[in-house]
Specification:
- With about 100 residues, this protein is of the alpha+beta class.
- The chain has one domain.
- Helix content is about 70%, strand content about 10%.
- It has a two-stranded antiparallel ribbon.
- A hairpin with a 2-residue loop joins strand 1 and strand 2.
- Helix 1 crosses helix 2.
- The longest helix is centred in the last third of the chain and has 46 residues.
């Protein structure tokens, strides 16, 4: 049986949590700080009356960022693949002409 990593204590939006996993504790703290910042940003802008609503809105914002990054990455990968195919075709044409 695989043993999980040591627990890392983090604070998110006033709550204390013990996160157990294989990731580096500093990485876990960085992610937790990001989530905490998003929740505080939402709370400051909207003054939402419940922690769960703040968490949901912060989750939606983070998911939006993720989806935008994935779409941008896919666009870049497609462009690289298109250029690589064009270069391959040009190289093949050049080699066939010799």
């Amino acid at each position: 049986m695989r043993e999980e990593g040591k627990a890392t204590r983090v604070s998110i939006f006033g709550g204390e949590y013990s996160i157990r996993g294989e990731a580096d504790p500093e990485y876990i703290r960085t992610v937790a700080n990001y989530v905490d910042g998003k929740m505080r940003e939402i709370d400051g802008e909207l003054k939402v009356p419940s922690v769960s609503k703040v968490a949901i809105l912060a989750s939606l914002n983070i998911a939006d960022e993720l989806f935008k990054e994935k779409m941008e990455r896919d666009k870049v990968v497609s462009e690289i693949e298109r250029r690589a195919a064009r270069m391959t075709a040009l190289l093949q044409d050049s080699l066939e002409g010799e």
